[in-house]
């Protein structure tokens, strides 16, 4: 069965697979690695322009390791899951410091690098070196869960173990680079999450999910929990010269390491905002003007954002706090900032009557 699956996938790939993606050119371990990290939880069409811009700025592991973190985050801004960018640079630094600037050709050593798991390490070995290694990204999980009718959510240990066994079983010893791309492409192009195109699938004849009428049910979804609703004041403090106060977020957590606007708890009333802002930020300000509220959804909660304009009398002085900085309003969107903040700063402001 293993040879049959691999043979059919490779024959399909030769006719229909994607062979001209940017990371297919000059498949170095570095280029494969960056593409794999970007593609985690992000569609190919979204990744392509980010990947090309990232490669233009950081063409090799050395340039990434030596770059200012703000520069790395700026080139990641809009892709989300920003821990990926921070981990990418940490791993690049480790490759330079511990491996002489060359990615190891060993699965265990690759997995020891920050942000590289079993599947990503295998993709680097298979795609860059042609070494037999089994991958199991989201697309591959879906293909294997349906082909073998594996029940349960793939995040569960027993289900994941079963999927890894199937992945190992089907990975061929020859053309492993093409095979890993083939099974990813099948999941992305044919065995899609919704409305899979079973009529054109090379594995349809003996797909157990299709035979049992379970293609819509497999793989099973993660049990849903209601996302909590949170709120925050977002402070747009501007001085008379048009500079905007920006705050660097903590390195871990939501939007970690990015520049954003200062936030305050919504337990504080609008009238109290200027006083609390001065106490918390050391910035004297007044004239609080609320703008239109908007909601942003994270993976584990919804955040209702209440933007408020505040005026800082005079021209801002140099900040003592390195996590606070004045930035010309027109330049703020060019920083490494979260997409919702960039959208807020670039769209026309709409005041809200409270």
UniProtKB/TrEMBL annotation:
Gene3D superfamilies: Helix-hairpin-Helix base-excision DNA repair enzymes (C-terminal) (1.10.1670.10), Hypothetical protein, domain 2 (1.10.340.30), Nucleoside Triphosphate Pyrophosphohydrolase (3.90.79.10). The keyword Metal-binding applies. PANTHER family: ADENINE DNA GLYCOSYLASE. It catalyses: Hydrolyzes free adenine bases from 7,8-dihydro-8-oxoguanine:adenine mismatched double-stranded DNA, leaving an apurinic site. This is Adenine DNA glycosylase. Its EC number is 3.2.2.31. Adenine glycosylase active on G-A mispairs. MutY also corrects error-prone DNA synthesis past GO lesions which are due to the oxidatively damaged form of guanine: 7,8-dihydro-8-oxoguanine (8-oxo-dGTP). The keyword DNA damage applies. Binds 1 [4Fe-4S] cluster. SMART domains: ENDO3c, FES. It comes from the Bacteria. Keywords: 4Fe-4S, DNA damage, DNA repair, Glycosidase, Hydrolase, Iron, Iron-sulfur, Metal-binding. NCBIfam families: mutY, PRK10880.1. Its cofactor is [4Fe-4S] cluster. Belongs to the Nth/MutY family. Residues 38-189 form the HhH-GPD domain. It comes from Marinobacter halodurans.
